[in-house]
Fold these 3 entries.
Entry 1:
Amino acid sequence: MMGFLRTITTSTLGKYTHGGGALSEEEHRFYEVNGYIIRKNNVSDALLDEIGTRFVDICNGKIDVGMEIRLVKDASLKQKVVKGVNSVRKVQDCLHDDIFSKYVSDPAVTDIVTSIIGPNITAIHCMLLNKPLDANPNSSMDPLHQDLHGFPFRPPERIVASWTALENVDKDNGGLYMVPGTHTLELQPHDYFEWLRKSVSCHYADSNCLM
């Protein structure tokens, strides 16, 4: 399953759309009202398997990622002898990795992104989220939040995120939740903790966005 959050298109410019592109008119209208769309089986299984293998290799130390990629360990596992995949909650800053960059530049993703924010897109952040099996559930939970808190550039209607599950997800094991229509609201006060099953995501912005 793949989700795109925060904008869309139609044949004419809307507040949250660019116009034309890979989305149907129905998808355009839905996004304008709700702030997200869902495309099932949009990214190939082959690419998702390649990303999953890359994640395992990085966690097991088979690949030297240097200072470019940051591994975030699950805080609840610090006192346990846990290594590899089951100790890592997040792979951060993997935008330029040889394999993760295939997702970032995959036409199955970028064609929809350009339909939402226009043709001048810049990938600004990529990460893989993992929910370790032995972690405290509360340590890997992520409440409803607005990503815009973390981005200093604007306007918000020219920023979009793609989110793709690497394995089957449902309401019991950590799927992605959206509250329809909240893309029209102002930023709300937030408290943070995290949750999610295994997924890969990337944020994109119109290259003309300003700090």
Note: The CA atoms of residues 146 and 186 lie 10 Å apart.
Entry 2:
Amino acid sequence: MLRTKVLELEKGPAVEMATRSAGGKRHLRCWKTLGWTALLILQMQLTGVSGLKNVRVVSPGAVAVGETAALECQYDLEGAELYAVKWYKGKKEFYRYLPKEDPPTKVFPLPGINVDLSESDAHHVVLRDAGFTLTGRYRCEVSADAPSFDTALVVASLVIVDFPDGEPIITAERSSYAVGEMVRANCTAQRSHPPANLTWSVNGRQVRGRHVRRYPLRRDEGNATTTTLGLEVEAGSGTFRRGRLTLRCQATLLSAYNASAELVIEEERPRLASVLGTRESSSAPAAAASPGAAAASPAAAASPPAASSSSSLPPTALPKTGLFIAAMATVSGYGASVCTFGGRSRLR
């Protein structure tokens, strides 16, 4: 026990001194780190360098298949020097820009990506012959040089599209409808990738809900898809405008495609029968049923008509009122008939 106490007495001061020495070194390192940090902050304030800001990626959103896709990485170094700009598709790097290297650009092979180095720089990367494999998310990583070494990472999406074959096509059951009937039509956008978005409008007002019908997509060759949207609305009394109903179908494909087609439906109205035709058809049977007319001799037909007892006035003394009525009847379309006034024929 005595030996143990002696060892503890001998060991105690040495251990305490060693502990104090190690703690002093740690404190010294901390002070040095704080000092260097303060110097860097002071230098940045004196030189006006505060790091990256306003970093973002500008993407066209949608590009037609076979065309060129240009992505832009915008940033503000606020006076600092650029260290590197790196582009990724997903998690794989395919383009790097290092201003202090010669040449500053470097490409990492990635299937489906064809970088145009002549058009790419510290802010832009240009991809030629866009195929459907280019669809995805793209990241831009910007790093400032010493002393800040600030780094920012931003993301944007790109979609490669195949436009529909021409404008949308509208088909209807008939070209004219009467008030109260159901107007049915279909709108079709042929062969696009991805499927086109279709909307209906009637007389300038968009139609939704139960009035539209979505048909199953039709898969064509390759990645193409044909889209059809149906329309079913009642032709109400206030639907027709000046006897016409305008159907409009609009097809869109992200921000790269916008086309529309229109179809004008005519209003069916009841047709009134011709008064002249009705009188002629009604007088024909009466003439056929008259035996006196059928038995009239040629001599009687050739003889002049006898004068009426009530028509004792000479032809020149015919009242003007009768002539005016006769003219009005003729203009109104009720036909013309022959009347006898004082032995002469007059139209009425």
Note: The chain has three domains: 53-161, 169-267, 311-348.
Entry 3:
Amino acid sequence: MGKPQYNQAFWSEWLKDKLFLDWLSEYEGDPLKAFCKVCCCQIRAKRADLINHRNTKKHETASGAIRLHAPGSIKLIKLNNKTNHAEAAIALFVSAHCSILSSDHLGELCKLQFSGAHADNIHLHRTKRTAIINNVLCPYFELKLKDDIGNNKYSILVDESTDISVTKFLGIVIIYYSTLKRTIVTTFLGLEELMEGNALAIVNAIKSCLKKYSLNIKNMIGLGTDNASVMIGVNNGVHKLLKDENPYIVLIKCVCHSLKLATSHAVSENTSTLRQQAYYKELFTTLNDGCEPLKIVQASNTRWLFIEVAVSRVIAQCEEIENTETQWRKINLVSWKHTNSSIDFWTEVKEFKDAAQCYIFKELANFSLTVLCLPWSNAAVERIFSQMNIVKSKARNKIAALPQHPYFRNHELLLKHEFSCLK
């Protein structure tokens, strides 16, 4: 007669055995079986079977792929707010003043040179610092900008440029009146990558940028561009396509570009004839004791583009026009303090109250501050491209548009809103 067979139930003491400690568990629903957490399979609840399973190639391979830790073996370090603030301050300093690569040892330097629990717990290298800049600082500053703009009227400046990797970008700058700062603010809004250089692609990029900040295109009052035909074309230009959705957008051609063209045109007209050159030579000789002037270089012929006058559309309701005109006639009856600055003056006018605590010049002041938000030069956009060439150099020509955006946003917000990485 053979050896009697018996059914072995799962023994809870096996869970404390060093051989089975990391991978064995009970199998729910059947007390005669065990469960391997690594291989996700059932095993008969017998010690010999458990040892045989532990030595199989399947189990060894699965155990090598999964790093197992005993319960309580991982000690978590609880970081305090001072450590978080210190790491955020360092990341803000890097985004505003230097590159990530050159400051890779900054976190370690702070740990070595400064004492304190929050300094000792700083672990900040390029990966974590980039994540803080992209996912913490930039969204915070974008939210501040969004709240500051609110539902105010605004203008935008747009221009195209190509970086070192031959990628075309559209730089967008916004001009608006900040109620919090009580001044006109000109700041970076977005850097959008362009797949094509036509007007439709540019308009789609502008709309995408405005959507990120929940800006209503109906509140746009001005568009500042260079004199490129894709921007100012009367049939299919960017201004024409935007004006189809908001007929009150005023096109302001960059005064710097227009002045250059005007100067070139004027020089071309004044030196185009031999008689005019002779007059110039005679005048130069008389003023410089007989010295001969250098030969005047013939200027290239360029077409004349005048600066379109920013004329606001006639307001539909005559009652509002009469109200604004009445306020204009009464404005000289008040003694104003800030008369040396247009922005300070109209801010004072906007906040003025009469004896009944009513803002009697509100409509007039809002209209004047809105006019001051109209663009006049594309210099602010050109500065963005100058910064882009610094951030994205020949040595770092693979950097994409997304990593560049937080640097511009953080840098501009620090400048325009008087923030500081020291606070």
Note: Residues 146 and 395 are 34 Å apart (CA to CA).
